[in-house]
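U., I forgot to send this yesterday:
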Amino acid sequence: MFTFNNEQLTGKSQSHLIELYPNHLVHIAATKAVKNLQQASQQAGFDLRLASSFRSFERQKTIWNNKASGLSVCLDKSEKPLDIKTLSGFELADSICFYSAIPGASRHHWGCDFDVYDFKAYANPNDLKLTQAEYQKGGENYQMYLWLVDNAEKFDFIFPFTQAKNGVAAEPWHISYQPLSKLAQQSFSADYFASLLKQNDILLADVILKAFDYFYPKYIGQYHV
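Result:
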């Protein structure tokens, strides 16, 4: 039986991965399930592709730090740009967490969570934005999304972010291979994650550590159990 170690769980290691497609690393034990789901989608008239698969700790850190420093746009819950200069460190970290995981805490580190889309729905795949509108009625991926809602569990995939709850934004494009993600959830160490925040150049890490009892259960704990 496969087991996750701390470095694999936090995107620091790629030892559990295989390159299933160019630029797409996938957990070795999830490759068959991905291919089976894709084959079924084709039989249903869709062409399910991976927009995002494994994401390293360093890649997640770049995404986070760019938002924390103002290099990338930070959005409010209505998807409108925020003026981060008006926010406290706590408010900024809280806002970023709604859309982007803290480095080390992304489910994409595990290699069994994927952002998916219908390749056939786009004349130019570069037009894919992974927005709510694309997966709602009238959107490019809406019909495939409806098919996934009815069929994903047959292949052991679930939607981990189905609604905003009290934490992160809903992600209708994000699916998770549950046999592995459940194991990852059970193996995830809050203490090891906190040590990463202390040892790496993550902006706002001091804010998160100071309010760890707020950030961890809200943005990590409820999605990792």
